[in-house]
Amino acid sequence: MSEICRFIHAEKANFTVVLLCKLMKTARSAYYAWVAGAGAGAREARRRADEALAHQITVIHIASRRNYGVPRVTAELRRQGRVVNHKRVARVMRENNIVGNGRRTGRRSLTRADTKAAPSPDLIGRDFTAARPGTKIVGDITYIPTAEGWLYLASWLDLATREIIGYSMADHHRADLVVDALDMAAALGRLEPGSVIHSDRGSEYTSGQLQDRMRELGHRQSMGRTGSCFDNAAAGSFWAVLKEEIGTRFWPDRATARADIFDFVDPFYNRRRLRKHIHWGYLTPRETRLRYRRDQGLAA
Fold first, then answer.
1. What functional role does this protein have (predicted)?
2. Which residues, 6 or more positions from 231, have their beta carbon under 8 angstroms from its beta carbon?
């Protein structure tokens, strides 16, 4: 009987159910009863599939520190071999109250310009792209609140990959802080000779200590205009990501904050956090760097 009903169901777009039932010598009531049962079975199958997808989404969401929204959850599912439409992901996330983090807006700037220092020219010009890794780097300083006082964090970000290639933390924001972060990037081999190192005009960046170190390393210094956060927007964007996605707003001490920031920057942000590349789709910063390296090798 089920084979006959399946045949009628498949052909009802071409012929009427009355005619098909008559030809197949089947009561219409039997066909409609089969449809009702098949529909219930299909609904149950969809429910079970949605439950399995919700579980998979929950695992991805927790692994992302509960930060991923629909686009990056969908991208991670596809990376895992699950072919799924983003609209279905959005529905399942909505039904299970799984929500990505939104960005907080506004931050107090640490920039204190040294009026006696001669600023470097702006070699970036708000073009926050780069043809290959290690050629255009942006940096900034932010502050982390702890019960012991501020913990200051300086970082250098590669514009080609959005990877944090150097960072440093201290209970001050003197020039040592940004120099140490630059030395980390150099020690890791993340800077090409003659690369552009861009920042704001804070006294840490106009200091003779940093300028001397850049000359020793053979790099070119670049600075945005005073009071214009948009001239260094890419560096500020990373602070927004960190402060929203790290999951903590206030730390009991600087040591705990240091440990959490270290855990966020390298294991998570550089190696696991997906970002959409204009050509290659969703990749982590580290994967983006390796992709550039592979493509350069093929081109050579």
1. Involved in the transposition of the insertion sequence.
2. 122, 124, 126, 200, 224, 225
- For the CA atoms of 242, 247, 250, 255, the dihedral, rounded to the nearest 10 degrees, stands at -80
Span 11-29, average pLDDT? 87
Q: Cβ neighbours of residue 68 under 8 Å, at least 6 residues apart?
A: 60, 61, 76, 100, 274
Residue 251's pLDDT band (boundaries 50, 70, 90)? very high
CA–CA gap between residue 284 and residue 50 (Å, rounded): 27
* Distance between CA atoms of residues 241 and 247, nearest Å: 11
Under 8 Å CB-to-CB from 3, ≥6 apart: which residues? none
Q: Are the C-beta atoms of 159 and 137 separated by less than 8 Å?
A: yes
Alpha helices in the chain (DSSP H): 2-11, 17-23, 28-63, 70-79, 86-95, 175-187, 208-217, 233-245, 254-263, 285-299
DSSP for 121-134 reads: P-SSTT----SSTT
Contact between 239 and 107 (Cβ < 8 Å): yes
Residue with tokens 């927007």: 233
The two tokens of residue 249 are 């707003």
Quote the pTM value: 0.69
Cα–Cα distance for residue pair 134/156, rounded to 1 Å: 11
Rounded to whole angstroms, how far apart are CA atoms 262 and 91?
A: 34
**Can you give the C-alpha Rg of the chain in angstroms?**
28
Q: Is the pLDDT of residue 271 over 90?
A: yes
